[in-house]
Design brief:
The complex is a heterodimer. In chain A, the strands form two sheets. In chain A, strands 1-4 form a two-stranded antiparallel sheet. A two-stranded antiparallel ribbon of chain A has the order 2-3. Chain A contains two helices and four strands; from the N terminus they run E-H-E-E-H-E. In chain A, a hairpin with a 5-residue loop joins strand 2 and strand 3. By secondary structure, chain A is of the alpha+beta class. Chain A has one domain: Alpha-Beta Plaits (2-Layer Sandwich). Chain B is of the alpha+beta class. Chain B contains 13 helices and twelve strands. In chain B, strand 6 and strand 7 form a beta hairpin. Classes of the chains: A alpha+beta, B alpha+beta. At the A-B interface, helix 1 and helix 2 of A face loops of B.
């Protein structure tokens, strides 16, 4: 059995979200907008191959609503 | 860098570079922005009325400062920067009404943004894209039927942007010619003040009418909130005005400059024809390359240290986004257009809580306007040499005319 070498945990702060939609454009499988325009986190613990898209979503978020941690699993 | 004196102190601040600076090439920022950059990414300048302010030309510094909560957009602060002289004529008591959203700080701004945001979600924008495509195609059919040359702003760009805005807001069909005429008059510096006043009166009347005869559009959605008592009617007029002001001229000018820029880069235009999937990156690159605002203003509410710069509370700051978009520390070969690069991190829509609420509509409009034009008019070319095309300097840079033939 192979062990995923890294895990990603995303948080999306709906209180500071301004609905620019950048996260949805970066990673549509992980983020969506509700009818009010606020971020909806579809998957907060995606596979390691999403890291690049998660990084981009966090970097482009104008209100810094997207944060994430990456941890190596033993 | 020079020591940052208190405002008004004589000495080093007398020799500061002066804003605004002027574009010479329509699709390049003022060359003097590079002199500012050489002084540092956050540096002191003097604005036209003599007041010293900070100018920000760095990409990383723009991101950091624009997302700092200690940046206020309160234009009634005595040190609020005024990037160009023409803005003073709109600082009348009457125009206090235009201050919503772009000139409010939290918590007021937070509520205003949330009131309007449901009309600008990615799904809503995707839903109106087919209408934008139809409008573009129909305008071009008429343009081609009228001969083999045209002034593209009047024949295509302005009617397209005005129609999209009418549809988005829910302007009744029978009022559209009047509304669009009012919005065109806003483009003329000699008429802008009267046009704003007429626009305010028109919208105020329209919103009253919509309370009894609702239609479909952003204004109608907001009228529901007025009826529910969660939104004041005057506030709704301010929302409508700010959307007209902030959305229209920037979009129209970016489309027109985009046409010019692609015609002047024929090899990249050929690539777009051959590989339409390149349009996604091309739209972002054009936004980066063309960014045409003359400056976004803020006032610091606290002391902020950024790099070597010591910004004090109550200092004015002007963000020169076209310069930040050409920052070599962020973009390789920043002064070259390259539709292959992925530059979604450009700052043409700003950054922080005030980042453009209509950005995803603007992306779609730019994409549809350019793509449809070059598809339907494949042999489009400039009717005069680029050097002879008249430009408009100002808070939003643009072309006064775009004569084309095919």
């Amino acid at each position: 059995m192979t062990v995923d070498p890294m895990s990603i945990r995303i948080t999306a702060d709906t209180a500071v979200c301004i609905g620019a939609g950048q996260c949805v454009l970066s990673a549509p499988a992980l983020f969506d907008q509700d009818d009010a325009g606020t971020v909806v986190l579809l998957n907060g613990q995606p596979a390691a191959d999403s890291l690049e898209a998660v990084r981009e979503a966090a970097y482009l978020c104008p209100s810094r609503a997207i944060t994430y941690t990456e941890t190596s699993q033993p | 860098m020079a020591e940052t004196n208190e405002s008004g102190a004589p000495g080093a601040e007398d020799a500061l570079p002066e804003l605004p600076m002027t574009r010479t090439c329509p699709y390049q920022p003022p060359a003097e922005y590079e002199d500012l950059r050489a002084r540092g990414p956050v540096t002191r300048v003097r604005q036209f009325d003599g007041r010293p302010v900070w100018a920000v030309t760095g990409h990383a510094e723009t991101r950091e400062l624009m997302s700092n909560p200690a940046m206020s957009v309160n234009r009634f602060h005595p040190n609020f920067p005024m990037p160009i002289p023409a803005l003073t004529q709109l600082q009348t008591p009457r125009s206090a009404a235009i201050g919503a959203l772009i000139r409010t700080d939290p918590p007021e701004h937070t509520k205003q943004r949330r009131d309007i945001l449901p009309s600008f979600t990615l799904k809503k924008i995707a839903g109106i894209k087919p209408e934008i495509e139809q409008t573009a195609a129909s305008l071009l059919t008429d343009m081609i039927a009228n001969g083999d040359s045209a002034e593209l702003l009047d024949a295509y760009v302005k009617p397209l942007v005005a129609t999209v805005l009418s549809q988005l807001l829910g302007i009744p069909y029978e009022d559209r010619n009047y509304f669009e005429d009012l919005t065109y008059r806003r483009f003329d510096p000699a008429q802008v003040v009267d046009a704003m006043s007429d626009l305010t009166d028109y919208l105020a009347k329209l919103l009253v009418a919509k309370e009894t005869e609702p239609g479909e559009g952003l204004l109608d959605d907001l009228v529901v909130q007025v009826k529910d008592g969660t939104l004041e009617r005057d506030e709704l007029v301010r929302y409508a005005l700010v959307l007209v002001i902030a959305g229209q001229e920037t979009t129209a000018n970016t489309i027109a400059l985009g046409v010019l820029t692609l015609l002047e880069h024929p090899e990249q235009l050929e690539e777009l024809r051959a590989e339409p999937e390149l349009w996604r990156n091309a739209v972002e690159e054009l936004l980066r390359f063309l960014s045409l605002t003359g400056g976004l203003s803020r006032v610091a509410t606290e002391d902020i240290t950024i790099g070597d710069a010591q910004i004090r509370a109550d200092d004015g700051i002007i963000f020169l986004n076209p310069a930040a978009n050409r920052d070599e520390a962020q973009f390789e070969r920043p002064n070259e257009l390259d539709i292959h690069r992925n530059v979604r991190n450009h700052l043409s829509f700003g950054f922080g809580i005030h980042q453009c609420i209509g950005q995803n509509l603007a992306r779609v409009e730019l994409d549809v306007a350019l793509r449809t034009l070059f598809e339907k008019v494949p042999d489009l070319r400039l009717a005069v040499p680029m050097q002879e095309i008249p430009v408009k300097q100002g808070l939003v840079f643009g072309l006064a005319e775009l004569p084309v033939e095919w």
